[in-house]
TrEMBL record:
Biological source species: Datura stramonium
Main location: membrane
Similarity field: Belongs to the major facilitator superfamily. Phosphate:H(+) symporter (TC 2.A.1.9) family.
InterPro entries, alphabetized: MFS_dom (IPR020846), MFS_sugar_transport-like (IPR005828), MFS_trans_sf (IPR036259), Phos_permease (IPR004738)
Entry-linked PANTHER family: SOLUTE CARRIER FAMILY 22 MEMBER
Protein name: Growth-regulating factor 4
Major facilitator superfamily (MFS) profile domain mapped to chain residues: 26-504
Organism phylogeny: Eukaryota, Viridiplantae, Streptophyta, Embryophyta, Tracheophyta
Annotated transmembrane regions: 21-47, 67-90, 102-121, 165-187, 215-234, 351-369, 375-394, 406-430, 450-471
Reactions this protein catalyses: phosphate(in) + H(+)(in) = phosphate(out) + H(+)(out)
Pfam families: Sugar_tr (PF00083)
Keywords of the record: Membrane, Phosphate transport, Symport, Transmembrane, Transmembrane helix, Transport
Membrane topology (UniProt): Multi-pass membrane protein
Cellular compartments annotated: Membrane
Gene3D superfamilies in alphabetical order: MFS general substrate transporter like domains (1.20.1250.20)
Length: 504
């Protein structure tokens, strides 16, 4: 790992340790935080249509109510804005106060704001949406801190041989979080539909949305507090990472004691070496120094630019899956369903995509990242994302025909598979490996924040164009833009990070 003195016995012990129980414990604990992040970020897409029916359906409308453009973009994107801010703030704080303490702060914030997101001040549309947006911003702020801290914690606990797989396994919990949000939505909507029978909107518009449906979106959003709360308890039982304790806090004795218990071996604290490192001026350069720019400037530019470009496409595809499926007819027209049935249909579609393509893509990366390398997976993912986007874009009208819906879903699923067996995973792994310990959390936070800036472009920009000008289908037909973005991602990753990343 960049910038570390691997002659320290405690660090050598970590690098050379055999894979054992504490590695898998660290994956689960750090990964459950990321599981919660994904649940909270993507569950909103399951309930936005329900919110429109509940609060914006008028008696004289001929179709179910929908969220106004400004409200829709705010509800969908405000958590991303909070996440960007949280990544920068908590990434920096993680290098100042330690991974363990700051990670606990982010989890507490996530628990509180997950519960609060399901509450509202008053029962008017304005009051409910304002409350939801307020707490989802702060929920995103907490989620933002989890990105650099989860990656850094796993990176600093891992051994050298399987470090990439362990960090990728933490990130792979995102797939389970997306899947779990769909499952919770399925169970909740199915239960309410069974308990409160309602006609479709076409049969009786006034009765198609039962009052009890207001509980559905609240339950789905508030459920995200449970895994975050469980994660907090177990995370506080883990010791601080030895790399932070030894190299940043300069407490060699504590680092040796902590890792000695974990690895069940005797480790020499080597106080003299730590003292020498603390006096070494060459290892004291800061983030805004020429020395950092010389050593890591291109690395940081590479990790930020690729993550930014990727997330424009990745988040717009994830957050607006329901719109894509509605456009091609895989989800029935809203007027043919009641409000609860619509939640069920959307959740079923997104759960199938997650189960068949999103989750497997992550775990292909886990299995192969330390065998074929980061660069190869990055390049492979970009290439096949481009191929399948073109396969959807060029004969677009063909896929909208009813007989071809299954083919469209297969092709669309493959874009998700190769996003995750590709750049979505590697952009998370790389920043946790190539920066020095005292700046690792900060640099990962900056890289992740650049990604969220891309996600904001996707959420606000594309949604605004779609809602204001009604050109969703035209945009889909113009998907060669996806090829252009993929091309830029490949070139920037290759030039700034380099094909020999795996040896760093």
């Amino acid at each position: 790992m960049a910038g570390e003195d691997n002659n320290l016995q405690v660090l050598n012990a970590l690098d050379l340790a055999k894979t054992q129980l504490y590695h898998f414990t660290a994956i689960i604990i750090a990964g459950m935080g990321f599981f919660t992040d994904a649940y909270d970020l993507f569950s909103i897409s399951l309930v936005t249509k329900l919110l429109g029916r509940l609060y914006y359906t008028k008696p004289d409308l001929l179709k179910p109510g929908t969220l106004p453009p400004t409200v829709s973009s705010s509800v969908t994107g405000v958590a991303l804005v909070g996440t960007l801010a949280g990544q920068l703030f908590f990434g920096w704080l993680g290098d100042k106060m330690g991974r363990k303490k700051v990670y606990g702060m982010t989890l507490v914030l996530m628990v509180v704001c997950s519960v609060a997101s399901g509450l509202s001040f008053g029962n008017t549309p304005k009051g409910v949406m304002a409350t939801l947006c307020f707490f989802r911003f702060w929920l995103g702020f907490g989620i933002g801190g989890d990105y650099p801290l989860s990656a850094t914690i796993m990176s600093e606990y891992a051994n050298k041989k399987t470090r990439g797989a362990f960090i990728a396994a933490v990130f792979a919990m995102q797939g389970f979080g997306i899947l779990f949000s769909g499952i919770i939505a399925l169970i909740t909507s199915a239960g309410f539909d069974h308990a409160y029978k309602a006609p479709t909107f076409a049969e009786n518009a006034a009765l198609s949305t039962v009052p009890q449906a207001d509980y559905i979106w609240r339950i789905i959003l508030m459920f995200g507090a449970l895994p975050a709360g469980l994660t907090y308890y177990w995370r506080m039982k883990m010791p601080e990472t030895a790399r932070y304790t030894a190299l940043v806090a300069k407490d060699a004795k504590r680092a040796a004691q902590d890792m000695g218990k974990v690895l069940q071996v005797e480790i020499d604290p080597e106080d003299a070496k730590i003292e020498k490192l603390s006096r070494d001026e060459t290892n004291k350069f800061g983030l805004f120094s020429w020395e950092f720019a010389r050593r890591h400037g291109l690395h940081l530019f590479g990790t930020t630019s690729t993550w930014f470009l990727l997330d424009i496409a990745f988040y717009s595809q994830n957050l607006f899956q329901k719109d894509v499926f509605s456009a091609v007819g895989w989800i029935p027209a809203a007027s043919t369903m009641n409000a609860v049935q619509e939640v069920y249909k959307i959740a079923r579609a997104q759960t199938l995509i997650a189960l068949c393509s999103t989750v497997p893509g992550y775990w292909f990366t886990v299995a192969l990242i330390d065998i074929i390398g980061r660069f190869a997976i990055q390049l492979l993912g970009f290439f096949f994302m481009t191929v399948f986007m073109f396969a959807i874009a060029i004969p677009y009208h063909h896929w909208t025909l009813k007989d071809n819906h299954i083919g469209f879903v297969v092709m669309y699923s493959l874009t998700f598979f190769f996003a995750n067996f590709g750049p979505n995973a590697t952009t998370f792994v790389v920043p946790a490996e190539i920066f020095p310990a005292r700046l690792r959390s900060t640099c990962h936070g900056i890289s992740a924040a650049a990604g969220k800036a891309g996600a904001i472009v996707g959420a606000y920009g594309f949604l605004s164009i779609n809602l204001r000008f009604g050109v969703w289908s035209k945009f889909e037909k113009n998907r060669p833009m996806g090829f252009f973005l993929d091309f830029l991602e490949v070139k920037s990753f290759q030039f700034f990070v380099g094909p020999n990343l795996d040896q760093k």
